[in-house]
Design a protein that fits this description.
The complex is a heterodimer of chains A (313) and B (207). Chain A is of the alpha/beta class and 313 residues long. Chain A is built from eleven helices and nine strands. Chain A has two domains: 141 residues, 3-Layer(aba) Sandwich (Rossmann fold); 154 residues, Aspartate/ornithine carbamoyltransferase (Rossmann fold, 3-Layer(aba) Sandwich), CATH 3.40.50. Chain A is 36% helix and 14% strand. Chain A starts with 12 loop residues before the first helix and ends in a 7-residue tail after the last helix. In chain B, the strands form two sheets. Chain B has a five-stranded parallel sheet, with helices on both faces. The chains are: A alpha/beta (313), B alpha/beta (207). At the A-B interface, helix 1 and helix 11 of A face helix 3 of B.
Chain lengths: 313, 207
Amino acid sequence: MNRHLISAGDLSRDDAVLILDTAAELASVADRPIKKLPTLRGRTVVNLFYEDSTRTRTSFEAAAKRLSADVINFSAKGSSVAKGESLKDTALTLEAMGSDAIVVRHPASGAPRRLADWTSGRVINAGDGTHEHPTQALLDAFTIRQRLVPDGRGRGLDGLRVTIVGDVLHSRVARSNVLLLDTLGAEATVVAPPTLMPHAIDTWPCKYGYDFDAELRKSDVVMMLRVQQERMSAAFFPTVREYRRRYGLDTGRMALLPEHAIVMHPGPMNRGVEIAAEVADSPRSTIVAQVANGVTVRMAVLYLMLGGSEVAV
Amino acid sequence: MCAMRPEPGHEPGDADPGNLDRSDRPADPGWKAVLTPEEIRRALSRIAHEILERTHGGEGIVLLGIPTRGVYLARRLAERIGEFEGAPAPVGSLDVTMHRDDLRLRPARALQRTEVPPDGVDGKTVVLVDDVLFSGRTVRAALDALNDLGRPRSVQLAVLVDRGHRELPIRADYVGKNLPTAHREAVRVLLSEIDGEDSVLLGERDR
């Protein structure tokens, strides 16, 4: 990994395991009377969000604040962006204000990569278009290791079978997860309707298929993706009902999973579309744990990228 | 931490503890043993007795080792206290990485484990345990880290080796051995739990 975290594919196995191990130690901070560490005192983290987001932005904000960094939240709405300022000028402005790291979410795939060329600080991709969302993949990996790898410190996810289901075409979460799961030794399988399967899926380091039911019995993890209606410019499936019938996770399908298998969702969920409410609220669901883990994993990333004289991972 | 890490290639089990003498060892030319396993054992027994004496039988004490080697020393002290008094002292570990004052001078380091005994540290007498006391900066960081875990009644410091050269107003309450050193020298503590042998070595820095 370089000075920035743009793609989950930038991480070596050692980098990824170091981030997960660091997060495991930081998790205990949440249980302490004082939920704060002085490590990033005097550093400034800018949350630059060109897209709506609650959990990712607040998660980064909580993570930075727990490490005592100063946080500047910058959302495109109501800012100079609305007056037509370019990404580059915004970045230069923020840098002039002394930001050490920019956490960026942008509707255009590749925007964080461009941003990294213009700033001397660190850039952390918090989701760019339909491209990547590396910290989501890290928190998902952390959650899987926590639930399914006993005594996980120092270890990857070797041999675990993860099935990623749904709107893969529009999903940055799916791409980042597939890359990171491969790095960590897990075996990912992507399942989607043919219309929502990326054309280049055969270049991804994973298996793929169109039949959800065929994958259920052999999955250790099922990761449901949100149907991203806001990114859909065409009709990708006839009706929500038909989508749900073939690719939704309901109690019937959940019953086919192995005893130990867990159900994940990056949120926000469309209850009743890709995931049934009873499944989302079941003990197999890690959806709430994923949110809590998001803060600790982002703390680990911020610490390793900003805590020392140079990036540690 | 003040002690240098063993060099690569010096794996646990490499050296036979029985072969240790005070001369240069073939495996480590230039390193001089200043404490033998016997002396380490006796020093720890004495410290355990001193802790019991000063805390009136170890009432309300919690031993917290500073990783890496401080943790093993703390466990050994807790065991001794158990042998002497019947009940082992609660023992844990305290990682100080996030509180260090030299974080920005080096790449961010991997975190070590912080484990606090279930009863916590509030109102307890916490004995911090480390292998080598040098500048005092690690202990300062430990005091800060401890502050975030609760409010002990008092905090004491036990070290196996005090090598001098303090940069902060910090002193140890219990010292295994006072070792006058030069600044250019380095002190290495080896413990059988991770290094395969017990020994304290003195050598040149930047070798």
